[in-house]
Amino acid sequence: MSGHSKFANIKHKKEKNDAAKGKIFTIIGREIAVAVKEGGPDPANN
Questions:
Q1: Sign of the dihedral through C-alpha 21, 23, 26, 27
Q2: CB of 22 within 8 A of CB of 15?
Q3: Are 35 and 28 in contact (CB under 8 A)?
Q4: Higher pLDDT pick, 37 / 7
Q5: How many Å apart are CA 46 and CA 37, to the nearest integer?
């Protein structure tokens, strides 16, 4: 099993999953920012 590293494999899976999660969080964050800007400063509208 030369060259086999369980933790390297975990690292590669984690990088892939983290990139996907980061993309989703970026999209959601952008939607929240747009909603806040459209809603105006009045908290009664929320």
A1: negative
A2: no
A3: no
A4: 7
A5: 12
CA angle 20, 39, 41 (to 5 degrees): 115
* pLDDT value of residue 37: 85
Residue 40 one-letter amino acid: G
pLDDT per position as a tens digit, 17-41: 999 999 999 999 999 899 888 876 6
Would you say 39 and 45 are in contact if contact means Cβ atoms under 8 Å apart? yes
Alpha carbon of residue 30 to chain centroid: 11
Give the per-residue pLDDT at 3.
Answer: 73
Q: Which two three-digit tokens encode residue 8?
A: 């390297």
Spell out the alpha helix ranges (H) of the chain.
6-39
